[in-house]
Amino acid sequence: MQNSGNDITNPRSGQRMIFLKTGKDTNGTMAEIESFNPPSQEREPEHVHPKQKSSCEVISGIIHFHLDGKTHILKPGDSLEIPAGVPHYFWNEGAEEAHTIQRFYPALEIDGFFKCYFAFARNGMLGKKGLPSLLRMSRPMLKYQNEIRTVNPPWAVQKAVFTALAPVAGMLGYKKTYE
Fold this sequence. Notes:
about 25% helix, six-stranded antiparallel β-sheet
């Protein structure tokens, strides 16, 4: 679990996160992350937080959210709540960096997931679509299955594949989480 005040950077996307509050700080009730997203046409993989409600508040810049089939353009002062289990992704196609505050209720281990994912990026382990290989991601995705899941293929298929690959990944020295 991250400590508040720690920051991480994804060199692939340029996104930077500062953990303002973590599950450690809030007895697990919420995580609060300050995020800086540079302009980019690249979109993150569509995903859900199956057991977490999340929100995004824009401090400066513009951020686009594709949420449950609709695109929302958020400007400074705007916020958006995302119910648990609703497919979404975001990107910044504006001219300036987008500065946001993201919150997750409950915290679960979302900070650990982001730390792991950004480590994949730092270590050149992400493919063209922003994801690591199925083998490499099998153990982390099982570990963080309550925090985040991509939407395609369906979770039942992903879980079966990850469960089958995880022992092989373990034998090859792939970890459940990365820093």
